[in-house]
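Severity: low
Component: inverse-folding endpoint
Summary: output formatting inconsistent between runs
Steps to reproduce: submit the following structure tokens with default settings.
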């Protein structure tokens, strides 16, 4: 399959990469329908973060499930799914407290590279949410926003206790990648 790889500042290449496959029973493999270029992709692109070796890019994505591992129960092949930028089990104490991006089993999706034709998603039950049916094409940008910035923004608004007609009590930075 083809996927984006960063080799150094200003050097992103579309390359032939190995097709992802189920490696753990909790995995899913999806066909990526759309993926974002995130602000945090630009840090290494601009040289603000070092690039030690050629690395896959992308962690915001929506797609169609192609295959699931034996332990996956909440999604199935053919489902259209929105994925989180951090894979999480959604069952540990930290997840249940609402901090999925800090799950004890967390895996950053950027390491797997969502800017590609296909993507392996670990902890698929906790990481992917199926939409009711296939969304219209014009809805896909909004679903992509749900993959990262909506969650980050929501967390920030909650943490700062932002409400209608009310100033935030504190200024906090939401965790992001
Ligand atoms: Zn967890």
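Observed output (run 2 of 3):
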């Amino acid at each position: 399959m083809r996927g984006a790889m960063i080799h150094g500042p200003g050097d992103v290449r579309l390359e032939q990469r190995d097709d992802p496959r189920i490696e753990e029973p909790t995995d899913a493999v999806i066909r990526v329908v759309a993926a974002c270029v995130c602000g945090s992709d630009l840090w290494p692109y601009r040289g603000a973060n070092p690039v030690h070796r050629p690395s896959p890019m992308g962690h915001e994505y929506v797609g169609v499930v192609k295959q699931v591992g034996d332990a996956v129960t909440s999604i199935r092949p053919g489902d259209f799914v929105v994925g989180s930028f951090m894979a999480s089990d959604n069952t540990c104490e930290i997840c249940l407290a609402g901090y999925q991006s800090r799950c004890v089993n967390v895996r950053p999706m950027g390491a797997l590279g969502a800017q590609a034709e296909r993507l392996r998603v670990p902890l698929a039950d906790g990481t992917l949410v199926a939409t009711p049916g296939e969304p219209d094409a014009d809805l896909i940008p909004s679903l992509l926003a749900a993959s990262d910035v909506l969650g980050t923004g929501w967390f920030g608004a909650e943490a700062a206790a932002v409400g209608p007609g009310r100033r935030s009590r504190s200024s906090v930075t939401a965790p992001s990648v």
